[in-house]
Amino acid sequence: MKSHVKRRTDPERAQSRRNQVLQAAAVCFARSGFHGASMSEISKEAGMSAGHIYNYFDNKEAIIMAFVDLESEHVAAQLRELGGKDDPLQSMIDEAPRHIDENLDPEYFQLPLEMFAEAARNPKIAEAIRASDVVAMAEFRPIIKRERERRGLPVDDALLDGRINTMVSLFHGLPIRSLHRPDMDRNSLVEGYRVAMKALLLS
Fold it and tell me: Which of 49, 102, 126, 148 is deepest in the core (most CB within 10 A)?
C-alpha cells in the first residue's frame, strides 16, 4: 500500500522509473529478443530488483505495449510537424533521405521488428498496433488529400488508400531489406525512393 501511495503522490519519479525500465528493456530485447529476454535480465540492466519492476509493469507484454504507445507518440509528433509544413508533399520527398537513414539504423528498427513479430502471434499486441495505425492514418490521410486537392490531383478513396499504403509499406520494408542486403548503396536507394515518392504523391 505504501508504494502505491508513493507512486500516486510522486508521478514524476514513477515516470522516471518507468522510463528506466523501458530503456533497459529496449537493450535486452535488441540483444536477446522479446521472448529471450527475461524479467530478471531486464531488472539487472535497469539496476533495480525484479519485484520493483512489477510496480510499474505487470509483465513483458505490458512493457512491449508501452513501446507501442511510445511509437504512436513518435509518429504523431512527426505528423504534426508534417502538417505544419508549407508544402507537405514536397517535404516528404525532400526528407526521404532522413527517413531512410532512420529505417536503416538497427538501433531504430530492432524494437519495431520485435513488436511486429510479437503482433504476428499475440492478438493483444496486434490490436494495439492496428489501433495506433488507425489514429495515425486519421492524421496522415487528410494531409495527403488536402495537398493533392490543392494541386488538382485525384483524391478518390481507393486511390488515396493505395498510395498511402504503398508509401508506408516502402518504409516498413526497409529494415527487412537491409537485413538481406546490408551493403545496399544508400545514395541509389535515396534516388529510387524519391522517384517512387514523387510518383505516388504528385501524380
Answer: 148
